[in-house]
Write a structure and sequence with these properties.
The chain contains ten helices and ten strands. It is an alpha/beta fold and 338 residues long. The longest helix is centred in the last third of the chain and has 30 residues. The relative contact order is 0.19. It binds adenosine-5'-triphosphate (ATP), magnesium ion (MG) and fe (iii) ion.
């Protein structure tokens, strides 16, 4: 039967119902971004409390939109980690309690597996093997995907994640939180070639990333500039180009190294238009297919958790009723689904 998915790892409360035969039946999302904006970043305790307020109303609304009652559900999936421990515990406790009261199996999903599988919510989903670029607020990873749950880490960031680099760079130029999408919008007004920043770690072999030096380059260029609105847009554009080209170079390398012909992009930075366009062009030129989630499923959502949970529950995987979360959790340690 349909699986209820619950996401509460950070500052978005996401709920969805996914059915392996019928697809996504409904999804709802509440973002806490406006609440945290006053503090310039996510305040963990406020996040937990807001998940407590929003989660059950969203579960009711999602089931209503799907035209289902709790009795129609076949299982429950929730994000068990990685993420903020208090926020994770809200979703895990509600999901576990619901499953226990209904006699349903429940499974704790890895948040990054959720991101990684989000493109499977779209038409024409990619079949493994593929390479996945996971670029979000907390992660920048290249993963070789041999099957669902068969993940090998090819590359990781040595310092800032790609989304974190967007957010911190935006902040140092005075853009409001959350900076990533704001910086990307500003970059559209930037002029090509006005500034140029380096493509970190592309001059040597390997698939790891490092983005913190780029932030320093931007800071120095910005401080030395006239700080006009046009300059701000020019710097934003050069920064975005540097990140996007760096990611694209490493994606191509990962495809060559793994021999895969399909590339999946997921996580919040996957919503970046320049990144999507650049990789779609590279794929068309070089003969690999490129798969993204729709924009709203790049950032955190319940649909990706419901999907990942449905696949694992269908393979007979679920856990004892104990409520446990894993604020740190290695993606490569997951059991294969088949
Ligand atoms: P993780 O998934 O690693 O735990 P997270 O859940 O906080 O981290 P996501 O919700 O996947 O991260 O993505 C949020 C990040 O994506 C933020 O850093 C945000 O700035 C970035 N982001 C969102 N839209 C864009 C965009 N259009 N361009 C660049 N960055 C973006
Ligand atoms: Mg978020
Ligand atoms: Fe996320």
């Amino acid at each position: 039967g349909p699986v209820l998915g619950v996401e509460t790892s950070c500052d978005e409360t996401g709920v969805a119902v996914y059915d392996l035969d019928r697809g996504l039946l409904a999804h709802t999302l509440y973002s806490q971004i406006r609440m945290h904006a006053d503090y310039g970043g996510v305040v963990p305790e406020l996040a937990s409390r807001d998940h407590v307020r929003k989660l059950l109303p969203l579960v009711r609304e999602t089931l209503a939109r799907a035209g289902l009652g709790v009795g129609d559900l076949g299982g429950v999936a929730y994000t068990a980690g990685p993420g903020l421990v208090g926020a994770l515990l809200v979703g895990a406790t509600a999901a576990r309690a619901l499953a226990w009261s209904l006699g349903l199996p429940a499974i704790g999903v890895h948040h990054m597996e959720g991101h990684l599988l989000a493109p499977l919510l779209e038409p024409d989903p990619p079949e493994p093997p593929f390479v996945a670029l996971l670029v979000s607020g907390g992660h920048s990873m290249l993963i070789e995907v041999a099957g669902i749950g068969r993940y090998t880490l090819l590359g990781d960031t040595l310092d800032d994640a790609a989304g974190e680099a967007f957010d911190k760079t935006a902040k140092l130029m005075g853009l409001p939180y959350p900076g990533g999408p704001a910086l990307a919008r500003l970059a559209e007004q930037g002029r090509a070639g006005a500034f140029r920043f380096s493509r970190p770690m592309t001059d040597r072999p390997g698939l790891d990333f490092s983005f913190s030096g780029l932030k320093t380059q931007v800071l120095l260029a910005w401080q030395a500039s006239d700080r006009s609105e046009q300059t701000k847009a020019d710097v934003a554009r050069a920064f975005e180009e540097a990140i996007v080209e760096t990611l694209a170079i490493k994606c191509r390398r990962a495809l060559v190294q793994s021999g895969a012909r399909r590339l999946v992009i997921a996580g919040g930075v996957g919503a970046n238009r320049r990144l999507r366009a650049e990789l779609a062009d590279a794929g068309a030129r070089e003969g690999f297919s490129v798969h993204f989630p729709r924009f709203e499923f790049c950032t955190d959502n319940g649909a990706m958790i419901a999907l990942a949970g449905a696949l694992r529950l269908a393979a007979g995987q679920h856990e004892t009723p104990a409520i446990a979360v894993r604020p740190r959790w290695d993606l490569a340690s997951l059991p294969p689904v088949a």
